[in-house]
Design goal:
Elements lengths: L1 H16 L8 E4 L5 E7 L2 E8 L6 E10 L2 E7 L10 E7 L3 E8 L4 E9 L2
Antiparallel strand pairs: 1-2, 1-8, 2-3, 3-4, 4-5, 5-6, 6-7, 7-8
Length: 119
């Protein structure tokens, strides 16, 4: 009986946390050293730079879950681009953080980063 209870708890945690036990919400470090905060609100994913040169800049706004650990939306921005420009974005959760990708002009002009989850 003890094994069955343990198995149920393990499966429940996997389902709740997603792939590789990852939880989307939390602090992440960008390749340039900035700290970004990823949050969930109303079932949507948001990410904002909270520490660095562009603190307060919101990079992804209201992305929708489209698969297991995958979020997409058209409200992504990049801190080095003009504020009016938005991109089609994808956030994919990984074992150690997330991959974030933004594209303009369909999929012809894209840029991507890997953010490492802060512990």
């Amino acid at each position: 009986m003890r094994f069955i209870g343990t198995a149920i708890v393990a499966v429940s945690l996997f389902v709740a946390l997603g792939p590789a036990g990852a939880s989307e919400s939390g602090s992440y470090t960008r390749p340039n050293g900035d700290t970004a905060q990823v949050t969930m609100s109303g079932g949507k994913l948001f990410c904002k730079i909270v520490k660095g040169e562009k603190a307060g800049f919101e990079m992804c706004h209201g992305m929708s879950k489209t698969g297991d650990g995958v979020w997409q939306g058209d409200g992504m921005k990049h801190p080095s681009m003009p504020g009016l420009m938005t991109f089609n974005g994808t956030v994919t959760m990984t074992a150690d953080g997330l991959n974030i990708k933004g594209c303009a002009v369909g999929q012809s002009m894209c840029d991507a980063e890997h953010w490492v989850k802060a512990h």
